[in-house]
Amino acid sequence: MTSPQPAPAPTQTMTIATNNDVVKARQLVRSLAQESGLSLVEQTKLVTAASELARNTLVHAGGGELLASRVSAAGHEGVRLVFRDDGPGIPEPDLALTDGWTSGDGMGLGLSGSRRLVDDFTLDTSVGEGTTVTVTKWAR
User: Fold this and answer.
1) Does 106 have pLDDT greater than 60?
2) How far apart are CA 4 and CA 54, in angstroms?
3) Cβ atoms within 10 A of the Cβ of 56, count?
4) Cβ contacts of residue 80 below 8 Å, gap of 6+?
5) Can you say how many angstroms the Cα of residue 137 is from the centroid of all Cα atoms in its chain?
6) Residue 124 CB-density burial (10 A; 0-12 exposed, 13-18 middle, 19+ buried)
7) Which of 29, 59, 92, 126 fits 50 for a cystine, CB–CB 3.0-4.6 Å?
8) 58-87 pLDDT per residue, tens
9) 76-85: strand order across its sheet
10) Which residue has the higher pLDDT, 113 or 42?
């Protein structure tokens, strides 16, 4: 007889429409990271990536949403974040992932920096249809 598997953690969804929502997103991500057993360094990396991605969602797409959940696989705990919007999309995703490239006044480290701070990073974008960025950070 196998032991029952824990139910998947519920996904928390929040709208990103204001600067205050970016702050709330960071707070939510920090809480999930702590609950998942991420170290302080891992928490800081994930919260920094989340802050950059939430800010990108607000600034470049006019807003969107964050879906955040605790995940587990192969005995490891982690946090998965999905940032999605219906904005203009990214015309040149490979270029947008290059350090220093910016479509605005930023430093050009949002997407590329976020990718370095997490364990798994997926960018799905279509011009005129929006962008979805999915990231996962695993506890060590």
Assistant:
1) no
2) 36
3) 26
4) 68, 69, 70, 71, 134, 135, 136
5) 9
6) middle
7) 29
8) 999 999 999 999 999 888 899 999 999 999
9) 12-16, 64-73, 76-85, 130-138, 120-126
10) 42
